[in-house]
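Module 6 notes. Inverse folding takes a fixed backbone as the condition and produces residue identities as the prediction. Think of it as a translation problem where the source language is geometry and the target language is the twenty amino acids. Below is one complete input and output pair. Work through it position by position during the lab.
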């Protein structure tokens, strides 16, 4: 029997594609009649999850994405630069 600890690496929520996750959040907001872009921008600028509906688990999904990383990725894509 080995005395070494083996690390189990299961599925991590952070591995979920950010774009796919944002599309799910966008869809949930739209289904509820919100202006999804305004709501997501409100969340990204304030950090307040109440901008995101809990419909279809959207609020929990947005909280699993690091805001700083997402903003960085958006800016890099908007400016069409490589990091």
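Target side of the pair, the amino acids:
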């Amino acid at each position: 029997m080995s005395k070494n600890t083996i690390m189990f690496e299961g599925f991590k929520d952070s591995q979920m594609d950010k774009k796919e996750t944002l599309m799910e959040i966008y869809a949930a907001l739209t289904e509820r009649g919100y202006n999804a872009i305004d709501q997501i921008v409100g969340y990204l600028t304030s950090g307040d999850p109440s901008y995101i509906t809990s419909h279809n688990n959207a609020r929990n999904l947005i909280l699993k994405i690091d805001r700083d990383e997402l903003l960085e990725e958006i800016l890099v894509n908007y400016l069409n630069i490589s990091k």
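Reference fact for the lab report: The radius of gyration is 16 Å.
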